[in-house]
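Lecture notes, part 5. Sequence design as translation. It can be helpful to think of inverse folding as translation between two languages: the language of shapes and the language of residues. The source text, in C-alpha cells, appears below.
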C-alpha cells in the first residue's frame, strides 16, 4: 500500500483492524512507527518502532530503527522486506519463526544473529541480501528451506548448526562467493540444486555427537 514512498513516520490509528504483509515495505526513510493505544488488534511497545499483533506475539512491520521486543515469537512474512537495516541484526531469544521474505532484500545488513529459540525459517527469509557476510547460528532448524539465503553474493563461509536434517533445493542458490560450507552430522538429505551457482570448494562434514 505504501511501497517505496517517502514516508518518515507511521502512526496506526485505533480504527485499523487489518495490516497485510509488506504494507510498508521498501520505505528507506521510515524511522518511527507507533500504534494508537486504543487499537484493539495491534500495539507498539514504547520506543520499539514496530507493529505487533495482540495475542499472537507476531511482529507485523518494522523499520531501520526498530527494536524487536523480547516477547516476539514470530517475525511475520515481509516484516522488514526491502528495508534498510543496521549492520548487525540480533534476533532476541524467544523468536521461534521467521516468515517468508521477512528480511529479504534488506539494505546494509551484514550480520544476522539467530537465537537458540528458533524453530523454523520460511522460504526466502534472507534472500537477495547483497551486504550479508556473516550468519551466526545460536539455534537450529530441521530444514534449511528453499531460497533461504539465495542470491547473497557476499556470503563466503557458512557453518550450519547441528540439528539440521535437510537442505532444500536452491537454499543457497546464486551465492557466488560461497566457498566453504560446514555440514553437521545430523544432515541426511541435501536436495539437488541446494548450492547451484555457488563456487563451493569444499563441504566439511562434522562428525561426533
Amino acid at each position: 500500500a505504501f511501497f517505496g514512498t517517502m514516508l518518515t513516520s507511521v502512526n496506526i490509528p485505533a480504527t485499523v483492524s487489518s495490516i497485510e504483509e509488506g504494507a510498508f515495505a521498501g520505505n528507506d526513510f521510515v524511522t518511527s512507527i507507533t500504534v494508537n493505544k486504543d487499537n484493539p488488534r495491534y500495539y507498539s511497545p514504547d520506543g520499539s518502532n514496530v507493529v505487533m499483533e495482540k495475542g499472537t506475539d507476531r511482529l507485523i512491520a518494522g523499520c531501520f530503527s526498530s527494536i524487536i521486543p523480547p516477547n516476539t515469537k514470530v517475525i511475520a512474512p515481509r516484516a522488514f522486506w526491502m528495508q534498510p537495516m543496521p549492520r548487525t541484526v540480533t534476533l532476541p531469544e524467544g523468536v521461534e519463526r521467521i516468515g517468508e521474505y521477512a528480511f529479504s532484500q534488506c539494505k546494509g545488513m551484514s550480520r544476522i544473529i539467530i537465537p537458540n529459540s528458533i524453530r523454523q525459517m520460511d522460504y526466502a527469509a534472507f534472500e537477495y541480501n547483497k551486504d550479508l557476510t556473516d550468519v551466526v547460528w545460536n539455534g537450529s532448524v530441521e530444514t534449511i528451506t528453499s531460497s533461504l539465503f539465495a542470491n547473497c553474493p557476499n556470503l563466503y563461509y557458512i557453518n550450519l548448526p547441528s540439528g539440521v536434517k535437510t537442505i532444500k533445493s536452491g537454499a543457497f542458490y546464486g551465492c557466488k562467493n560461497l566457498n566453504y560450507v560446514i555440514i553437521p552430522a545430523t544432515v541426511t538429505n541435501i536436495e539437488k540444486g541446494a548450492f547451484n551457482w555457488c563456487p563451493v570448494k569444499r563441504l566439511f562434514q562434522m562428525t561426533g555427537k
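The translated text above is only one of many valid answers, since several sequences can fold into similar shapes. The mean pLDDT is 94.
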